[in-house]
Amino acid sequence: MENVTVNFLRDDDITAPVLIEGLPGIGQVGKLTAEHIMHELGAEKIAEIFSLHFPPQVIIDEEGVSHLVSNEIYRYAGEDATLLFLVGDFQSTSAEGHYILTETYLDIAEELGVQRIYTLGGYGVGHLVENSRVFAAVNMPELIPEVEAAGGSFENAQNGGVIVGASGLLLGLGVHRGIEGICLMGETSGYIVDPKSAESLLHVLKNLLNIEIDPTLLQQRAEDMEQIIAKIREAEEMKADEELSYIG
Amino acid sequence: MENVTVNFLRDDDITAPVLIEGLPGIGQVGKLTAEHIMHELGAEKIAEIFSLHFPPQVIIDEEGVSHLVSNEIYRYAGEDATLLFLVGDFQSTSAEGHYILTETYLDIAEELGVQRIYTLGGYGVGHLVENSRVFAAVNMPELIPEVEAAGGSFENAQNGGVIVGASGLLLGLGVHRGIEGICLMGETSGYIVDPKSAESLLHVLKNLLNIEIDPTLLQQRAEDMEQIIAKIREAEEMKADEELSYIG
Amino acid sequence: MENVTVNFLRDDDITAPVLIEGLPGIGQVGKLTAEHIMHELGAEKIAEIFSLHFPPQVIIDEEGVSHLVSNEIYRYAGEDATLLFLVGDFQSTSAEGHYILTETYLDIAEELGVQRIYTLGGYGVGHLVENSRVFAAVNMPELIPEVEAAGGSFENAQNGGVIVGASGLLLGLGVHRGIEGICLMGETSGYIVDPKSAESLLHVLKNLLNIEIDPTLLQQRAEDMEQIIAKIREAEEMKADEELSYIG
Amino acid sequence: MENVTVNFLRDDDITAPVLIEGLPGIGQVGKLTAEHIMHELGAEKIAEIFSLHFPPQVIIDEEGVSHLVSNEIYRYAGEDATLLFLVGDFQSTSAEGHYILTETYLDIAEELGVQRIYTLGGYGVGHLVENSRVFAAVNMPELIPEVEAAGGSFENAQNGGVIVGASGLLLGLGVHRGIEGICLMGETSGYIVDPKSAESLLHVLKNLLNIEIDPTLLQQRAEDMEQIIAKIREAEEMKADEELSYIG
User: Fold this and answer.
1) What positions belong to coiled-coil segments (chains A, B, C, D) (predicted)?
2) Which end of chain D is more exposed for a tag (fewer CB within 10 A), N or C?
3) How many other C-beta atoms lie within 10 A of the C-beta of residue D140?
4) Which helix (H) or strand (E) holds B102?
């Protein structure tokens, strides 16, 4: 078995200047954002990536049909933009696998004409965040003004820090191929799936892509999540009160 | 050393349309079922599979003779059916090894003419089960009606879920070679070796294979296990009573 | 770097029918026994084995000189016997490495004419043992009577059990090359380095090799260890007494 | 992707007889010392080493620009000496990777004419050290007198001990290529980053290299660290006093 296998589902000459990565990570912020954009734009799947560096398992869908763990490339080719997306449910199981898989992602990107990659993720701060900032990192210093103009912040850079997995390596390995890389990280607690942080991230990304994307569905998911959190808090307070009256 | 070595013990032209996998897993349900069928039909060993992805050890048999860890292929070639079996005491020690070993299993299956693979396992629910249902997953949607007609249930699919190891990968990698894959999972607590769940699984598999297999030995093992559980419960209740009278 | 590198320190045609393995393991029983024999017979080092499957470190000797982790082949070529020894301070760091290293050991063995391998180890029972039995396993059933005649016991075989690492794999992989393999395991607590168990093991091995080896040094080490254990017990009892008188 | 990639940033014929390794380790003693010398001499970067054996991540600098994890070769070519330095923020993530990376370091060293390697590290003793000794190990016994004359101590050798990672393997693998290897280890608690121990180490290394290096900056960092430790101790004592008066 090859370490990585790529199955292309379409054979055409359409190139795309931009790839957006939204694999699983902190608060699922990157995944939520990328999948929201794909859904709104109606992107279609054009490639599947299988690898022995993914977990050795199949996923059962709601019909009972098995699917080998994979990452996938989707494409939206519209009048306003042509965009590629890299999404999936898993990253590599091993340190070495992250490097090997990212080189494959970059091979695909180069083959499809990509000149810039946005990698999306969460920036965990360990407490609930009211208004999520969008922190950023780039792989070429000349990209900084453009990101700041779009609403991205580089405040986090003062803390040093690292970006682990595909979101980091696409920047770090991409620069050696001359591909621009911008990592956007929505501030998030790190405790919950965070569509509100994803909405902040979407806002900055829209400015950078210069296209329109309706945020309504993401806003609704954020409101649903707010209500879930409110209910949990209420239940906790009630329980605390009951315990007090019991003691009293 | 090769990653995987296959020793064929027979050299003939007999092909088999069906492979049944029963490697170790939850409640040993798959292993019990496959080994029961092999025993009842009198299947013979036709190949041994060794690999550096298995644990680095030998097993000592009751005579004191060592045996390298292996998986094995058995065959039953009768008038009613020709069946292959994939059994053994271990699976891969590493994530990557699961992929590499499963590709070897599929190479063997293709070489021997296999068109359909049944993978057998347990479906752990965390509590003792009176009447084990048999849950299923398939690698091609058109297989669903046949499995349901034989008594398999797809209720579990609503929970999503994954199938880890060879039972999953034989479906997930097999579909890319055009081999039908059906995974049958006997509902089981997950705490004990469960011949009763294996008996339920056998019932559904017999319907699918359309052959007769005497379940008596499996039923006896299930009754033995029931008695062991009953005795453990009794002992626990007696102990609880004693403690109460001591307090009283 | 090659996975395994072998440096031969001598270039002659001397072959040896027997290899004795004494790598680290339970109670260091195998290592103590092999090194005692090597010392008594005056064996000389004829090969060094380096590998990236060993721990990534050097060992500092009493002079302050570093030595890359290695396993080593020693040889005794006398009138009574020609024997090879496989010894060292470490085994593989990974499961796969055990297989790869053992194949190298067998390559060397074949090259040097080895027809039989003795692998030496401890058999941990979890409590201090007064008179250590010597349990055995073989890779060909016809070897059993000879081992029993020499004082080895196959009682342990009834418990099933596995032999992990080089001691097991030399038997399991060796049989596929037609090399006889006998594993001798001195009964030991598993808690301490156990020269007394090594002495029992030496006794059985001497019978099998049919040569004389003076056990005096091993007996002395066993007596030293007995005294250490006695002192620890005494100290524990005194401490217990003091605590009692303090309470009283 | 290659396991290891080396990018040379300069193409000239300058050779250097000496390589100084200062990768991360106990108390960061080796890293502090190597980076101090590089800074004082004004060494320049001449090569970058990337590898899938490093952690799969990028590091964000204070501008917000990502940098793939790497080790780096710096060079100082002055009238008094020509020196190479091997530095970086990480070592291998796996045992095997340490061997593979060290072989690459030695390939580079040989290519650049290196005949001697100094590997720098800390020697953890588990308590704060007033006057750090500098312990040593060598890969050829004839190097001992020179190291002792320069102030290095071989007292530690009596305890046996191992040197893990690149500092050890450069000696252990280097000797097989005929490259002299001297490991210098500054005595340190192991609890804190220890510039004072680095200063002791610098003193011995200067003697060996026979060049002048101003220790002022390292001394200042050591004084800063002393003050930090003094303040922590003071705070702890005040807290202890408060607790006593509360009890009293």
Assistant:
1) 218-245
2) C
3) 16
4) helix B95-111
* B98 in contact with chain A, both atoms CB, cutoff 8 A: yes
The verdict on residue A223 lying in a domain is: no
Subunits that touch chain A (at least 3 Cβ pairs < 8 angstroms)?
A: B, D
Q: Does D96 touch chain A (CB under 8 A)?
A: no
DSSP H helices in D72-126: 95-111
Shortest alpha-carbon distance between residue B189 and chain C (Å)? 26
**C166 touches C183 (CB < 8 A):** no
DSSP B153: B
Q: Cβ contacts of residue D133 below 8 Å, gap of 6+?
A: D153, D155, D187, D200
Assembly ipTM: 0.91
Contact yes or no for B165/B3 (Cβ under 8 A): no
- Give the model confidence (pLDDT) of D1-18 as tens digits: 689 999 999 989 899 999
**CA–CA distance from D79 to each of B208, D83, D116, D204, D210 (Å)?**
85, 11, 19, 21, 12
Q: Is residue C138 part of a domain?
A: yes
Q: Write out chain C residues lying below 8 Å of D98, CB-based.
A: 56
Handedness of CA D34, D38, D43, D44 (dihedral sign): positive
If one counts every other C-beta atom within 10 angstroms of the C-beta of residue B34, the result is 26
Whether residue A56 and residue B169 make contact (CB cut-off 8 A), yes or no, is: yes
- Give start and end residues of each alpha helix (H) in B137-215: 144-149, 166-174, 195-209
Q: How many CA atoms lie within 13 A of B109 on its CB side?
A: 29
Residue-by-residue DSSP string for A167-204:
HHHHHHHHGGGT-EEEEEEEEE-SSS--HHHHHHHHHH
DSSP letters for C160-175: --EEESHHHHHHHHHG
Residues in chain D: 248
Say if D93 is an interface residue toward chain A (CB within 8 Å). yes
Rounded to whole angstroms, the Cα distance separating D190 from C61 reads 23
On the CB side of C200, how many CA atoms lie within 13 Å of its CA?
23
Closest CA to B7 of C105, C162, C178, C176: C176
Tokens 């060992």, located at residue: C59
CATH of the domain at D50: 3.40.50.10900
Q: Which residues contact B206 (CB under 8 A, 6 or more apart)?
A: B212, B213
Q: Judge C/A contact: 3 or more CB pairs < 8 A.
A: no
Number of domains, chain B: 1
- What confidence score (pLDDT) does residue B139 get? 98
Residue span of the structural domain in which C53 resides = 4-215
Is D229 within the bounds of a domain? Answer: no
Closest CA to C162 of C172, C151, C149: C172
CA C131 vs. chain centroid, Å, equals: 19
Distance of CA C93 to the CA centre of its chain: 18
Q: B169 — contact with chain A (CB < 8 Å)?
A: yes
Confidence bin at C229 (pLDDT 50/70/90):
confident
C-alpha distances out from residue D45 to B210, D13, D70, Å: 73, 15, 12
Our answer on whether D and B touch (3+ beta-carbon pairs < 8 Å) is no
User: How many contacts does B have with C, using Cβ atoms within 8 A?
Assistant: 90
Q: pLDDT digits over A162-197, tens only?
A: 999 999 999 999 999 999 999 999 999 998 899 999
**Residue D233 is assigned to a structural domain of this protein:** no
